[in-house]
Amino acid sequence: MLHGRPASAGTASGPARIVRGPEDFDRVRRGDVLVCHFTDPAWTPLFGVVAAVVTEVGGPLSHAAIVAREQRIPAVVGVADAMSLLDDSKPVTVDGTAGTVS
Question: What region holds the PEP-utilising enzyme mobile domain (predicted)?
């Protein structure tokens, strides 16, 4: 189990989708769990597709946290090394209330 900062409440499960940058956006499918280093406004369209968000950096006022709350999808931010510890396409569960990823 990985731990980070709760950023948007709720729980969701889906395949982890490791996204390193805009060049990977076309790999994201409906119901995926977006796993990335951070997000910025260019990433906003992905929030309408994914089931949850996990970032390696950020806090409650980060772009990922704010947009996840607006979209009402679970998010955990500040999960150190999430991109290397989670396997692409493997199922994960994000608990945005507790701040955990399993």
Answer: 29-99
pLDDT of residue 62: 98
Entry pTM: 0.97
Q: Which residues contact 67 (CB under 8 A, 6 or more apart)?
A: 39, 44, 47
Beta-strand pair 52-55/75-77: parallel
- The catalytic residues are 63
Average pLDDT, the chain: 98
Sequence spans of domains, the chain? 2-101
Sheet holding 11-18, edge to edge: 2-3, 100-101, 91-95, 11-18, 33-36, 52-55, 75-77, 5-8
In 5-97 the beta strands, taken as DSSP E runs, fall at 5-8, 11-18, 33-36, 52-55, 75-77, 91-95
- In CATH, the architecture of 2-101 is 3-Layer(bba) Sandwich (3.50)
